[in-house]
Amino acid sequence: MEKTEIERLLIEIKAGSLEQYELIIDHYQQPIFTYCYHMLGHRQDAEDAVQEVLFRAYEHLDQYTYSLSFSAWLYRIAYNHCANVLKRRKLSRVLPFLYNRDQDGRNYVEESIDSNYFGEPLEQIWKRLSAEERTLIFLRVLEEREYEEISELMDKKPAALRKQFERVLKKCKRYLPTMEGVAANGQKSV
């Protein structure tokens, strides 16, 4: 969907045409889900996040300014939401008694990324990255976004993001050798 078409839809939505928001949802639902899944590592959490992000976007549509691309604005909402979810997860590990578990004793917030999606070594590296680093890797590598567009989302200069990206890649490369020879149960293989 072209920027002009999105802007036209947004004007109609702001004027009260709720039906047009369905087109926005259809266009952005899958990319936002993919982003949230990479950030949160759990399908159900990502599905919940997409609904929350798209609802918040609609709810705060009057705050959207056309100086920022709508896509970058949505990703900023998704980033903030995922960062908050990750903070709550961290808190749940520190204060586990605050979080309920289901009948089987499972806490879905603490479940790990599906190993079929990333594989164990990449999953372990991914877990070591901050939310900001995950966002940068996701948008640059998987979404193939330019630094200029990412800079709108992360509120940093493109040159700074380029340097940060290089540092994150080096960090990932450092972690990779530590993953070699680690069995699925986390024990060193012999």
Structure report:
The chain is globular and about 55 Å long. The C terminus is likely disordered. With 190 residues, the chain is mostly helical. The longest helix is centred in the middle third of the chain and has 25 residues. The chain is built from 8 helices and no strands.
Uncertain runs: 94-101, 106-118, 180-190
Q: Approximately how much helix is present in the residues?
A: 55-70%
The H/E string reads: HHHHHHHH
N/C terminus separation = 53 Å
Number of strands: 0
Tell me the major beta sheet. Answer: none
What does the radius of gyration come to?
19 Å
Beta-strand content bin? under 5%
What is the mean pLDDT?
A: 77
Question: Class by helix and strand content?
Answer: mainly alpha
Shape: globular
Count helical runs.
8
Question: Topology of this structure?
Answer:
Elements: H1 3-14, H2 19-40, H3 43-59, H4 70-94, H5 120-128, H6 131-142, H7 147-154, H8 158-179
Helix pairs in contact: 1-2, 2-3, 2-4, 3-4, 4-7, 5-8, 6-8, 7-8
Short descriptors:
67% helix, mainly alpha, 190 residues, 8 helices
At a glance:
By secondary structure, the chain is mainly alpha-helical. The chain has helices spanning 3-14, 19-40, 43-59, 70-94, 120-128, 131-142, 147-154, 158-179. Mean pLDDT is 77; it is low at 94-101, 106-118 and 180-190.
